[in-house]
Amino acid sequence: xxxxxxxxxxxxxxxxxxxxxxxxxxxxxxxxxxxxxxxxxxxxxxxxxxxxxxxxxxxxxxxxxxxxxxxxxxxxxxxxxxxxxxxxxxxxxxxxxxxxxxxxxxxxxxxxxxxxxxxxxxx
Length: 123
Known about the structure:
- 40% of the residues lie in helices and 0% in strands.
- Among the domains are: 14-32 and 46-78, no CATH class; 91-123, no CATH class.
- The protein has 6 helices and no strands.
- The chain is globular, with a radius of gyration of 19 Å.
- By secondary structure, it is mostly helical.
- The longest helix is centred in the last third of the chain and has 12 residues, at 111-122.
């Protein structure tokens, strides 16, 4: 984009035109809206667990949402870390110590390193 941001009115349509002109993304941008507990999802929302009988990893969920516009909830995700990040679950004792992060997934060698990573994840 030109220095100073998109040219024109700054409307969503103008910003979209600039992104399409200069970035040319392969998929649509993704926005996330968290439903309140107990709030029903719109009837048109498709979800992997309900519509295909599968659970997916967080990285797959973003790709599916970007490409096909599907939604996701707790029952659709297979990754405990993703469920915790989205607030669907709370940290377990094992997770608090960072055990789920070491050594295979994050290549951490100590529980201290896993615990530190978990604290950084929480912000």
